[in-house]
User: Fold this.
Amino acid sequence: MRIKRSYIGIAFIITLLLAVVPAPAAADQYVGGIPLETVKEGTVSGGLWHDSFVGTAPVREATKQYSLPDYTEIKWARLYVTVYCGHMQNNYEHRATVKFNGGSGMQTLGVEELRKPYSYPIYGGDGPVWVNDHCNRVTSDYLMWYDVTNRITARNPVAEVMVDQPEGYKGTLDGRIKLVTLVVAYDDGDDDEVYYWVNQGHDVHSYYVEDIGETYIGETIFATEDLPEDDERIPAAEFSAIYLASNVGEFEFNAEPLDANPPQGAYSGYQIWDVSDLLEPGTTSTFTYTRDLGVAGSGGNFLGAFFKIPLALLSVRYPEEEVGSIRVTSVPAGATIFLDDEPTQWTTNTTIPGIPAGDHSVRVEVDRYRVPDDRWVTVTKGANTTAHFDLEAITGSIEVTSEPSGAWVYLNGENMSVATPATLENLIIGDYTVEVRTEEHEDYRTVTVSEGETTSVNFDFTTSGGGDGGSDGGVPDYGYTG
Assistant:
């Protein structure tokens, strides 16, 4: 029973500690928000591209022409539009018409009825409001998005946005357009591998959080743990944040601070960083963000006291491997090929594909032949280079004698056209069957040839056995292994 009470006590302490240690906030505790999550990830050969219209003055009509990079195929594309309704909670009603010309003429993507009130969670409100499956409201901004993957057929698509307040709509007319952003993942026909992530939300950090003694740090995760680790290619990582604020926020990538410039627009901006040195292969990547904490929210210093972010983009490029091939031949063929001092699966004569461009050493080896010096070859992209080896055999000799002399000599069944006594020279080392024949006699021996040596074998037909170690009269088992 005492043991059970101990377990109960430990469980109580753990529960108490969990209650005391605050969990990270899921969204701004005062006004609410939609934290960023990955909505698209994939691999392309070209890259992840984006460009934005940023409002520099209050406008309710905006046209943005984009200049896409050269591409062979659009793999994914989405257009984002942000419209300001004029109040953090009140329902100032507007209508937004979004059109897009991807190269086949201007088409209407949507006519959005922006007629929803907003309520703060701190007062028991619901926070983010969904207008439909591609439009939501967080505080004073409506964010809408459209898939335009199959609409892009040219390099200079155009987006048009118009906001109005038709007769019968209520509330103050504002409807300024803060942001019109196009994000495109594309192939360009080369063999680069570009892994990309699009993290989307509608998150906010308000100064109200600090006013009530709390804090908020927004966070979003990128699944970079599956990136290639044992890869000789050096990856280049690019990270972008697209935000809604008059003052740029404070950012960290994998716990390292990121410097940021002022926003390009009056109410929005974007920033691009090279985060290649901050990437940690085998682990996820984390981006955190807050508002500019140096800006207070009271006394008229409200500009920059709020920070919103709908998009964070990450791409990691592994450059195309520049490869060529090497044709390796030898006499004799069948030699094992060594590349950069490592054995390969290949034997001569063959062409080895997929060799990285640059200088490489090539060598071949085969039993009973001297190992040649390495040959250095230069491989260039898309080209074939050659390396040939005339291999030098390791040899010895066999001296064949008989009593009486004049017997014909056969080596592995082949008539050597010589009679005893004879010396067979330049034989590749290994085992041979030596046979001698006369009109009355024949005999054979298995002889091993060693490097640089002369092996002697004698057949004595003057004895009754027909030789000095003669055969049993059967058919020789020719044992050449050279």
The chain has two helices and 33 strands. The chain has three domains: 24-318, 323-390, 395-460. Helices lie at 2-20, 208-211. The longest strand covers residues 193-205.
